[in-house]
Design goal:
Layout: H1 3-16, H2 23-29, H3 49-61, H4 69-81, E1 86-90, H5 93-107, E2 115-118, H6 124-132, E3 136-139, H7 151-157, E4 162-167, H8 177-187, E5 190-194, E6 202-203, E7 206-207, E8 214-218, E9 231-235, H9 238-248, E10 272-273, E11 283-284, H10 300-310, H11 313-335, E12 339-340, E13 348-349, E14 355-359, H12 362-374, E15 380-381, H13 403-411, E16 412-415, H14 423-438
Helix pairs in contact: 1-3, 3-10, 4-10, 5-6, 5-9, 11-14
The structure holds pyridoxal-5'-phosphate.
Length: 451
């Protein structure tokens, strides 16, 4: 019997003995949802035993625990699925952004202080790596109806020091990519995609990443597919990914992965050679350091989980889209024009990360959020709102210059559209909203709806 089969049997045995094995898998699937006790979480791993078996098998049969054959396979399969030349797995989406920008800066020979356009609305580690790489973030305000950056403002911000734009589609929903591409082409600047919330989103039938020079992804459990922690940097430019790998792997020049690590000649085919100018001796390429780097490598078990998750990505995409439509209809039915929900434009096929709700006033957002939370339906701010309002980012620009961005923390929140949501979840959301509308006096207190 194969190791995998034995592990699967072991898990089943534990279950028949009454052990609660990996309860989070089954909570997240909401198969036995009970509104009296259970939370509807905004996200979580969409796993079954196959991911667990793959992870344990990789630990039992693997040689080094660290990134090896499984990570290398995940990188290859991820690239094939999303149309990249190559990919590099790292330990988080934030690390992916860090080395994507480091690699872009080195490859395109940008100077310290060169400018990168970015929205102030979103996740902090979309922006932090620009500063960490000694580039200058130039903020542009958003268009409030879709929360993405305003392309007119992007165009106005491009000048001779601008080198690129980092696009992070809001909850996976892209702005007009044709317009963005054409204005970036005109300005001679590069598009980098923080695709952490947008895996699977398309524009004109092509992956969003097809419109970017380099793309990142996060595999934190809230995201479309998860490996626990984890992230990916990908591109159709192989050299860029090799450069990102150097930054992520201690700064060394060697780019051998998986079994090529054991090769006497290495992936470069000339491992032992005179690599250092001015040093007339043989050097092992494995220990040639061509840049100042980090260690951002994942574990091999994360690669093993990723390979299983990839097989579910189409199903996740379809289910997230369907759930967004159903939840949107429920919200509009109960709240009408007191809220607005961002829409995808005709050319987009958004793989929604969540359902964004724009409230027409601050009090409504506060009341709705409290009401949902007191009824065990998880909500989320749209991350930082305007990042420039936060203490760690104050110094980068004046938050008051971005009036639309400032409204986000006040008026916007989101709920999940997880692929495991089912009819019971939709009914619960509808019941809670119905009770919210009928109980204007009791919104701030404890749950009004029983159970
Ligand atoms: C848009 C965006 N970028 C970057 C990240 C960071 O990813 P990670 O948590 O894997 O570091 C997140 C996390 O949720 C995100 O939403």
């Amino acid at each position: 019997m194969s190791v995998k089969k034995k592990i699967a049997e072991c898990i089943n045995q534990l279950r028949t003995e009454g052990e609660t094995c990996f309860p989070f898998l089954y909570n997240s699937k909401l198969e036995t949802y009970n509104p009296a006790t259970d939370w509807i979480l905004y996200s979580g791993p969409y796993w079954d035993d196959e991911e667990i078996v793959a992870a344990i098998e990789s630990l039992i049969t693997g040689k080094w625990v660290v990134a090896g054959e499984h990570v290398a396979r995940f990188e290859r399969e991820f690239s094939k699925t999303y149309n990249f030349e190559s990919s590099l797995m790292v330990n988080s989406g934030s690390s992916a952004n860090l080395v994507m920008i480091a690699a872009m800066k080195k490859y395109y020979q940008w100077n310290d202080g060169d400018e990168i356009i970015v929205s102030p609305v979103g996740f902090p580690t979309t922006i932090a790596p620009i500063v960490q790489n000694r580039l200058k973030p130039v903020f542009v305000d958003i268009t409030y109806h879709d929360l993405n950056f305003d392309l007119d403002h992007v165009e106005a911000a491009i000048h001779s020091n601008t080198k690129g734009v980092v696009l992070s589609p809001v909850l996976g929903n892209p702005p007009n990519m044709d317009d963005l591409v054409s204005l970036c082409k005109k300005g001679g600047i590069q598009i980098m995609l923080d695709g952490c919330d947008a895996l699977g989103s398309k524009w004109n039938g092509k992956h969003l990443s097809d419109y970017a020079e380099a793309t990142t992804c996060s595999f934190y459990p809230a995201h479309h597919i998860t490996t626990g922690e984890g992230g990916m940097v990908s591109s159709r430019n192989d050299e860029l990914v090799s450069m990102a790998r150097r930054f992520a792997w201690w700064g060394r020049d060697c780019y051998c992965t998986g079994s090529t690590n054991l090769s006497p000649i290495g992936a470069c085919g000339k491992r032992f050679a005179k690599w250092i100018d001015g040093y007339d001796q043989i050097v092992d390429h494995k220990y040639l350091f061509s840049t100042i780097g980090y260690n951002l490598k994942p574990l091999d078990l994360q690669g093993a989980i990723g390979c299983v998750q990839l097989k579910k990505s189409d199903e996740i995409h379809t289910k997230r889209r369907a759930m967004k439509s159903s939840l949107e209809a429920i919200f509009i039915h109960h709240l009408g024009d007191r809220i607005a929900i961002p829409q995808e434009v005709a050319q987009a096929e958004t793989s929604w990360f969540g359902v964004p709700i724009i409230c027409n006033e601050h009090a409504l957002k506060q009341e709705l959020v409290q009401y949902f939370e007191s009824h065990r339906i998880q909500t989320r701010n749209y991350f930082a709102g305007n990042i420039l309002q936060h203490p760690g980012y104050h110094h980068l620009d004046d938050a008051q210059k971005f009036p639309c961005a400032n409204l986000v923390l006040d008026n916007v929140f989101f709920v999940g559209c997880h692929p495991s949501y089912n009819e019971a979840v939709l009914t619960r959301v509808s019941d809670v909203l119905s009770s919210f509308v009928k109980n204007p006096d009791g919104r701030r207190g404890e749950a009004q709806l029983s159970p």
